[in-house]
Amino acid sequence: MAAVSxxxxxxxxIEVKLRSGEWQVVYPQRSWDVDVxxxxxxxxxxxxxxxxxxxxxxxxxxxxxxxxxxxxxxxSREAKGRDRAEARELAREGKRRKExxxxxxxxxxxxxxxxRNAQVRKDMRREIPSVILLFVLLILCVAIPxxxxxxxxLLASATVPLCCCLSRVIVASDISSQTDxxxxxxxxxxxxxxxxxxxxxALALLLLMTVQHALQGFPWTAAIVWTGTLFCVGVxxxxxxxxxxxxxxxxxxxxxxxxERESAQGxxxxxxxxxEGSVIRERGxxxxxxxxxxxxxxxxxxxxxxxxxxxxxxVVFLPQGTDDYGQCDSIxxxxxxxxxxxxxxxxGEQKPWGCRWFTKWRENxxxxxxxxxxxxxxxFQNHVGKGxxxxxxxxxxxNLNREKVNRKQNDYEESPEFKQALDAGLGNLSTxxxxxxxxxxxxxxxxxxxASLSETEREYLVTSEGLGNSQKAEVAWLEKKGYTYWEVxxxxxxxxxxxxxxxxxxxxxEPQFYGRQDDFSPRNEDLFESPVPALPGAIC
Length: 540
Known about the structure:
Layout: E1 2-7, E2 14-18, E3 24-26, E4 31-36, E5 40-47, E6 54-60, E7 64-67, H1 74-143, H2 149-172, H3 180-184, H4 188-215, H5 221-241, H6 251-273, E8 286-290, H7 296-307, E9 312-313, H8 343-347, H9 356-370, E10 374-379, H10 392-406, H11 408-412, H12 416-423, H13 440-452, H14 455-463, H15 469-481, E11 485-489, E12 500-502, E13 512-514, H16 524-527
Parallel strand pairs: 1-7, 8-9, 8-10, 10-11
Antiparallel strand pairs: 1-4, 2-3, 2-5, 5-6, 12-13
Helix pairs in contact: 1-2, 1-4, 1-6, 2-4, 2-5, 4-5, 10-15
């Protein structure tokens, strides 16, 4: 009896079987082992994400170990090409997300810093007069000539509290406190320099007073002036030496910084993420009327070009943190639709994000239509024309039904069947997102969930793929109003990556070209062409 082992050294899940057996799922870094009694047997293999890509290998009597990346010739080469293409896309998407996060953080930090600076300016306008008054009083004490011993003593004594305050300034001017940014913002260097100059001017005034009083016969006042000054300087120096002057921010200070950052984040969202469309009034010009939001990189490109006036777009995005998020608008009576706001016909119920976006979107569409624009509706990759609802009147109920079925996935992922898949190596799949926001792991989890549903529910979800939830209502509205539009694949906005070529040895088949793969997701008709593949019985 021969032992056959097929190891999946690819980054994507595969299915394997003997000619007369059933398909077995093998996840990356796992193997499928089976004993066979035939002299010669055939091992078949296919990709989980594209069952149409198949291969086979004849195994003769004796133990055989096969590797998915090399043991199945044409299949292995194409599977590796797809692995390489996806790896490049993941790297590109990871870089884009990181750069976007860095840009966002930088804008938020700049906005928060500007808020802190504004508060600092406000505080300075309130506190600087007090410092000036303190300095003016010191000047007066020096400028007034002592007419008697009593007057000299009073003038010298008056400088003592002033000296204490100014001594704190002198010592603090050379201390880099962690609270500087909070209290002085971007003016920290200027404030420290100003305090230092002010401190030395105060010392100069005290020296002038000492000389003046000595010339007028009251040299003993120097003891009053300098004893108080040196005492204050000494106290503050000791406090600085033991770090007592560098006090951390209080809880109130930290809460203030947090509120300023939250406010800055909202402003950045309103300024950079929020998009209310940019319709160019030009007859015959294409205008993006509906867009699948899960393609974040392409969306960023669309928004950027829309703001620059290069692309006409009617689409609207009011994310959380923006002023109109969660706001709703009532439905005009002339429309004859149920519900207190547009949320009802759009989603079947009130939604946290509201329906203000739909009002703005309708206005943009009307502007585009009046201008004679050619409306464009963008569908998921390889799903042009799919995912529509029956009509705008049924869009809300359809959304509720779809959400009800989709919620079952949470329960499924707590089931023994899903835990069995995890034990079989499901967790070995990458969780890094590609351009459409999905990962190897999330797509496989979705396949397993769909396979667990009844045929009716599964077919319902599969046929609904092609448009986002809000898009379904948008397209239904266009059809309700009788507006014509072009159906476009979103891949026209996705970045190309060139071509790579596998060069065979002499005598092998012609070179194969591998580029961007558009069918990472399995075709719906292939995914359920046969009973759900079993998980491997023997796992290495």
